[in-house]
Amino acid sequence: MSAPPILEVRGTDVFYGASQILFGIDLAVARGQTMALLGRNGAGKSTTFKAIAGIAPPRRGQVLLSGAPVSGRPPYLVARAGIGYVPEDRQVFPEHTVEDNLVVGAKAGPRGDRHWTTARVYEVFPLLAGMRHRMAGRLSGGEQQMLTIARTLMGNPDILLLDEPSEGLAPIIVRAIGDLIRTLREMGVTILIAEQNMHFCLGVATHATVIDKGQVVYSAGIDELRGNDAILQRYLAV
Ligand SMILES: Nc1ncnc2c1ncn2[C@@H]1O[C@H](COP(=O)(O)OP(=O)(O)OP(=O)(O)O)[C@@H](O)[C@H]1O
Ligand SMILES: [Mg+2]
């Protein structure tokens, strides 16, 4: 029997008060994949991430990590189980140095592994190495994005969830973030990335799932999506 996906979302409904936002979301990310979760403004990408991270617990359905259910647990236990969530508002501790921000994120992974250390982070994020003693609040938006990704990796997660990492950043910084995600992918990091920026995703993802109005409307390998004009036009307004 093959191994279960690292992350699986099954038949998940999420409500905010009386309004239903997600309708039976199904999603699976296998080890080593970079899955793009695509959809327009308000499609439900961030809500899907919050459902996975335990911040917006599903009313129906399940979230499984390597086959074991994590839904229903509080966010800190979901994180401890191996889900590394980088929310869209990229929070750093502004009055602390880059290095302190990294150290705060350090913990062993779910099986006790400590693959990610500050030394390793500085190898993969050379930009941060040169800034290790700078206050995080002094970094640019793109540098803060890199720092939040690096800090999350310091927790040695089984999967990295990135909510719109390219949002609001200048094109040259978007390219740098894209290069970084490709490097992580080549290192074997499993990634789920929410994006509206279709071109960015075509360059970094191996697979794509498209959601619209809280429902999955398409899921395939990235090359198949690239060739599917109907889906690109209809849901992604390319
Ligand atoms: N706290 C909340 N209370 C009520 N409705 C909410 C709340 N947060 C989000 N919504 C609604 O849920 C829907 C999905 O929002 P969500 O943030 O998941 O979309 P998104 O795909 O991440 O969009 P974007 O690309 O703009 O980030 C939207 O209609 C939004 O208005
Ligand atoms: Mg969002």
Automatic annotation (TrEMBL):
InterPro entries tied to this protein: AAA+_ATPase, ABC_transporter-like_ATP-bd, ABC_transporter-like_CS, BCAA_Transport_ATP-bd_LivF, P-loop_NTPase
Molecular function, one GO term: branched-chain amino acid transmembrane transporter activity
Alphabetical UniProt keywords: Amino-acid transport, ATP-binding, Nucleotide-binding, Transport
Cell division as UniProt keyword: no
CDD domains assigned to the protein according to its UniProt record, in alphabetical order: ABC_TM1139_LivF_branched
GO terms of biological process kind: L-amino acid transport
Record bears the keyword ATP-binding: yes
Limits of the ABC transporter domain: 7-238
PANTHER family assigned to the protein according to its UniProt record, in alphabetical order: ABC TRANSPORTER ATP-BINDING PROTEIN, HIGH-AFFINITY BRANCHED-CHAIN AMINO ACID TRANSPORT ATP-BINDING PROTEIN LIVF
Family of the protein in this entry: Belongs to the ABC transporter superfamily.
Protein name: ABC transporter ATP-binding protein
Species name: Teichococcus rhizosphaerae
